[in-house]
């Protein structure tokens, strides 16, 4: 994917490195306003506290969004054992502490293996999944409990580095619909403790890699320059 901002009327596929704290919608909306795109959408939501690859499609290319969403994803990051939060990341406050002294390398490896391959997982209560027509995170913020159905996903690779235990660095390759926060929550439970996600970065979607993505500010600047050159001509 090259860094060509001269986007034709029929649309283009744009790779952006999503900034920390921005929602995926924030990025799409910012590009729409700043670059005067008539139609834009993103292929696969990233949580506000995650960074990394976000694919955005404009114009007629928005018809390809479903194709990109269905592709394999790769993530890297860090989770920490011994504490939990309701959202399983740092968006909410710590709500409980758990022991970690009993956790051996064998226990860690067994948990990793159980979360590799075809698995069932329940999406986090703080997620965009709809239940009874409403996003789960809205119900969670009101303190409501909803019945969440399990979903089948595929984790083709789950690597962990325990050098800085109880912080654990990881790399995951997974199918569409996999929640990394659910994996972290389940990992904590499998090792008889708790866990929360502290860092998450999406590094790949299908054949698209983060290393080829634009910084959001740089893309907008280059696009505006290109638009001004067109006006001057």
Automatic annotation (TrEMBL):
<comment type="function">
    <text>Responsible for synthesis of pseudouridine from uracil-55 in the psi GC loop of transfer RNAs.</text>
</comment>
<dbReference type="InterPro" id="IPR002501">
    <property type="entry name" value="PsdUridine_synth_N"/>
</dbReference>
<dbReference type="GO" id="GO:0031119">
    <property type="term" value="P:tRNA pseudouridine synthesis"/>
</dbReference>
<protein>
    <recommendedName>
        <fullName>tRNA pseudouridine synthase B</fullName>
        <ecNumber>5.4.99.25</ecNumber>
    </recommendedName>
</protein>
<dbReference type="GO" id="GO:0003723">
    <property type="term" value="F:RNA binding"/>
</dbReference>
<feature type="active site" description="Nucleophile">
    <location>
        <position position="47"/>
    </location>
</feature>
<dbReference type="InterPro" id="IPR014780">
    <property type="entry name" value="tRNA_psdUridine_synth_TruB"/>
</dbReference>
<dbReference type="GO" id="GO:1990481">
    <property type="term" value="P:mRNA pseudouridine synthesis"/>
</dbReference>
<dbReference type="Pfam" id="PF01509">
    <property type="entry name" value="TruB_N"/>
</dbReference>
<keyword id="KW-0413">Isomerase</keyword>
<feature type="domain" description="Pseudouridine synthase II N-terminal">
    <location>
        <begin position="32"/>
        <end position="180"/>
    </location>
</feature>
<keyword id="KW-0819">tRNA processing</keyword>
<dbReference type="GO" id="GO:0160148">
    <property type="term" value="F:tRNA pseudouridine(55) synthase activity"/>
</dbReference>
<comment type="similarity">
    <text>Belongs to the pseudouridine synthase TruB family. Type 1 subfamily.</text>
</comment>
<dbReference type="InterPro" id="IPR020103">
    <property type="entry name" value="PsdUridine_synth_cat_dom_sf"/>
</dbReference>
